[in-house]
Amino acid sequence: MAIKIYKPYTPSRRFMTGYVFDDITKTEPEKKLTKFIWSTAWRNNMWRVTTRFRGAWHKRLYRIIDFKWYDKLNVPWKVSAIEYDPYRTCRIALVVFADWEKRYMLAWKGVKVWDAVMIWENSPLKIWNRKQLKDIPEWFNIFNVEITPFTKWKLCRSAWSFISITGKDVALKSVFLKMPSWEIRKFDEKCRATIWQIWNEDHKNIVIWKAWRQRWLWKKPHVLWKSMNPCDHPHWGWEWHTDIGLKYPKSNTWRPVPPGKKTRKVKKWSTKFIVSRRTKN
Fold first, then answer.
1. Least-confidence region, from 12-16, 38-42, 198-202
2. Which of 13, 77, 100, 109 is most buried by a 10 A CB count?
3. Hey, which residues does 177 pair with through a beta bridge?
4. Closest C-alpha among 130, 138, 10, 162 to residue 66
């Protein structure tokens, strides 16, 4: 995949980059695998904004991607096409099973049309095959990882992301995974994952540059808290960006947030699975 640089015929075009889309083999999606999602404008049933700085959504179709596939175990399938997904940073692949059923899945690095993939119990250690963590050797890169066995694929689903297997504990039947944030977590060895990594490594080189292009991504302009009114945030300044006048910062719900304080819940159920905290800034 290549990145194109726009000609600076206007100031908003300067330094802007975008995709070439030379890796796309099909432009129109499957109608049976798409649906339209209406925007709620990020408001609740009382029509109050629950998520700030979101709006101006762009009309687009959602591609229904199956993140389970347990009903298709031991059924061979091949990649039919590679498509663009407006809801995701990575590409998606349209696959066809032996019974001629079509489904979408996340595309991996180096995927090609008519690649054969297996989700079998005894499938070989090959790129893009899906196996249990106990059957994958250490320091292999994986993606589409399950948090608990026989559930949906929830971890590592964005562009150019992968998780490394750092170790195994046979006695506890656990596998240690190194997350993209360098946090090491413990998983059940029966959890499944796909070998290799997600495609679209050039996503990090995309330069948005102008504000309206951010609005297409449903992002509104974000102002400083001390530029707001007193009813909107406790840091309100109003006059020439004065100091917040507090001993430590506060959130928009008036809760104290001292600098460096960890916001993770102490009694969260997944805390016991964290072996080493994140070290990557």
1. 38-42
2. 77
3. 165, 185
4. 130
Q: Are residues 175 and 231 in the same domain?
A: no
| Dihedral pair phi/psi, residue 135, rounded to 5° | -95, 0
What is the average per-residue pLDDT within 34-60?
90
Position 216 in a domain: no
Whether the per-residue pLDDT at 13 is higher than 80: the answer is: yes
Q: What is the rounded CA–CA span in Å between residue 205 and residue 207?
A: 6
Asked if 79 contacts 57 with a C-beta cutoff of 8 angstroms, the reply is no
In a domain, 173, yes or no: yes
What contacts 127, CB < 8 A, 6 or more positions away?
108, 110, 195, 196
Quick check: 187 and 175 in contact, CB under 8 A?
A: yes
Please report where in the chains the tokens 């159920």 appear, as a residue. 269
Contacts of 176-183 with C-beta under 8 Å, sequence gap 24+, read: 176/275, 177/133, 177/142, 177/145, 179/155, 179/278, 180/156, 180/280, 181/278, 181/280, 182/278, 182/279, 182/280, 183/274, 183/276, 183/277, 183/278, 183/279
Domain shared by 38 and 173, yes or no: yes
Residues in the chain, overall count: 281
